[in-house]
Amino acid sequence: MFKRILSKYLLLWLVLVCALAFYWEQLFGADVFNPFFIKDKDLRGDVMSGMIAVTMLAVGSLLPYEEVKAVAKRWYTTLEGTAIQYISMPLLAYCVASALRLEGAAFAGVMLAGCVPGAMASNVLTLTARGNVSYSVGLTTSATLLSPIVVPITLYLFLGRQSSLPVADIMLNLLETVVAPTVIGFVLSRKFLFWEKVSQRFAEIVANIVIIWIISSVVAANADKVSQLTPRMIGAMIALNLLGYCAGYFGGKAIGLDSGMRRALTIEVGMQNAGLGTALAMKFFQNQPEAALFCASYTFGCMFTGIILAQLFRLSSYRREVAESAAASAAADEK
């Protein structure tokens, strides 16, 4: 019951919890323990990384063996989709940030959002959109496994000259917090029936709660800086998200994907894992808090647009099914 309510109204819970984190001190005072705010910056980054690892452990535990096996058979299609994502999104992020003349922390935030792999929520929204869920899982898995190599390199290419970016540290952090937990979760579910049963009941709940906590924690940590989210940053957020959907859709058409797989790629590319970008920003861009603020805001924004897009895809499928049914009935009547 709770799982269904949490997933169905995820956007509402996100808004409510972020609002609570933002107004916590005004409502309860600065002396009351704030579960969303960690004062120590170093500890804050470590906690964020730990929470991402918990989320990826949950996601890995939920990966169906049959879907993983099916995706493995069409590995080339998965790699094509991953290539579209990792090529288009960093380039789009750079073009958007440059066109809007963003600099410093704002530029870093846009690039972080553009360079990270796809969001975990894309798999759920692909199901809502009546897309190919196994392909969506394959894209998320592929991008996640490649992230320790691709993300540091792309960040260095676009940000290396602006800051002393610790490429090796980012690579190790992604291995520890993204790849390893995903693989461990998948193996545990295959080896232990108890773990698989517990994961089926609680893993999605844990993943959603952790993502909400990460975003709200950034809101709490930057409550006094929300006013610094300028119209140009908001414009960059919207442009990157919508252009990402376009890149996924037309990229899927270019490589000949069917409708279901194209929907999966569209949602996957547009919905970047800015929660991971937030954690990276909190850990490696501590002197540029606006970077984390942008990533957290992007997560909120792409979830909002992703839900709308998934519903539009679903409505399109429904209308097509009704039309096909009516056509079949008409043909039967003629006979």
Overall description:
It contains 15 helices and no strands. The protein is 82% helix and 0% strand. The protein has a single domain (41-317), classed as Na+/H+ antiporter like fold (Up-down Bundle). The longest helix is centred in the C-terminal third of the chain and has 46 residues, at 289-334. The protein is an all-alpha fold.
List keywords for this structure.
mainly alpha, 0% strand, Na+/H+ antiporter like fold
Itemize the secondary structure elements and their pairings.
Elements: H1 2-8, H2 10-22, H3 24-28, H4 41-62, H5 65-73, H6 75-99, H7 104-115, H8 121-128, H9 133-159, H10 167-191, H11 193-221, H12 231-254, H13 259-270, H14 274-284, H15 289-334
Helix pairs in contact: 1-11, 2-11, 4-10, 4-11, 4-14, 5-9, 6-7, 6-9, 6-12, 6-13, 7-9, 7-14, 7-15, 8-9, 8-13, 8-15, 9-10, 9-13, 10-11, 11-14, 11-15, 12-13, 12-15, 14-15
Structure at a glance:
The protein is mainly α.
Oligomer: single chain
| Number of separate structural domains | 1
- DSSP strand count: 0
- Assess the beta-strand content as a share of residues: under 5%
Rg from Cα:
20 Å
- Fraction of residues in helix: over 70%
Return residue spans where pLDDT drops below 50 for at least 5 consecutive residues: none
Mean pLDDT: 81
The CATH topology is what? Na+/H+ antiporter like fold
Give the overall shape: globular
Topology as a string of helices (H) and strands (E): HHHHHHHHHHHHHHH
